[in-house]
Design goal:
- The chain is α+β, with helices and mostly antiparallel strands and about 280 residues long.
- Helix content is about 15%, strand content about 35%.
- The protein is globular and about 65 Å long.
- The strands form two sheets. Strands 1, 3, 4, 6, 11, 12, 13 and 15 form an eight-stranded antiparallel sheet that branches. Strands 2-5-14-7-8-9-10 form a seven-stranded antiparallel sheet, with no helix packed on it.
Length: about 280
């Protein structure tokens, strides 16, 4: 009996020790060895062109520009589900107004990028972003859906330079743009006089305006989100009152970013990819 106890007790002790060691050991996680997922060398959208970002509206339940720490003012706007968190919900007769910073007023080259999700508006053009010119019919910068049809729309853009000459970009058609989140980006590089238009990270078209030079935004009291300058109440320009062919963005906007340089095509693509993943 004595010999049996001497052989059993050590065996029990060893088994107990092995069980304790097993319970303390962490399960191997192969994902912990994976490098961080990157797009264009970036792992978060805020890393892209960080030193050139001069305005960013994420619309997380507020109209605050995270760069200047100042807020836009909403007229009938609300918040809904966005690409990243919440989005600015606009709609008929609704818009938001932001007083531009000096950095925005002094843009020479630029990138403007944002997400938009809207149904067709048979009442008139839908303008997500407008840089008001308080003395002219057309704004310092216009970007709008025109020629809206069930499965397509022309997307038109208009800007002024320092000589107050304007450039019109009107040749690009969007296919099936309604009721989906779509990433829009326009870059302008003043040294090369070149505009590039991107949709969902892909280059849609380019335009070179010989001798256009630096952008020139004057009489610039506000940026509008959701309509063009003469559709507000009252009109924000002495150059026009409400037009029957113009209306409001009926849907939502998210992640509006303004840079003081033309981002590269790879940067625009990475911005689309990362924001699309909520990063």
């Amino acid at each position: 009996m004595y010999r049996i106890q001497r052989t059993i007790i050590p065996a029990l002790a060893i088994a107990s020790l092995a069980l304790g060691m097993g319970s303390c050991q962490k399960k191997f996680d192969p994902n912990s060895y994976k490098p961080a997922e990157t797009f264009g060398g970036f792992s978060a959208s805020n890393e892209i062109g960080a030193s050139s970002l001069i305005a960013h509206f994420s619309f997380e339940g507020a109209l605050i520009d995270s760069v200047s720490k100042t807020s836009a003012t909403g007229t009938g706007t609300s918040y809904g589900t966005g690409v990243k968190g919440q989005a600015l919900q606009i709609g008929l007769n609704n818009y938001a107004t932001f007083i531009p910073t000096d950095a925005i007023k002094q843009l020479q080259s630029m990138t403007i990028a944002y997400w938009v999700n809207t149904p067709i508006n048979n009442s008139g053009i839908q303008e997500p972003v407008c840089f008001v010119n308080s003395t002219q019919f057309w704004s310092n910068l216009d970007m709008y859906f025109d020629g809206q049809q069930d499965a397509s729309s022309v997307f038109k853009m208009h800007l002024y330079n320092t000589a107050q000459q304007d450039a019109w970009l009107t040749n690009w058609t969007l296919s099936n743009p309604w009721g989906i989140w779509m990433h829009i980006a326009l870059t302008y590089d003043a040294p090369t006089n070149k505009f590039i238009f991107y949709v969902n990270g892909q280059q849609v078209g380019t335009a070179t305006q010989a001798g256009f030079g630096n952008l020139g935004f004057v009489n610039f009291p506000a940026i509008l989100f959701g309509t063009i300058q003469f559709q507000t109440t009252p009109s924000m320009t002495s150059g026009a009152t409400s037009q029957t062919w113009a209306s409001f963005l009926l849907g939502a906007m998210d992640e509006v970013r303004i840079y003081n340089k033309a981002l590269s095509g790879s940067d625009v693509k990475a911005l689309f990819q990362l924001e699309n993943l909520g990063k």
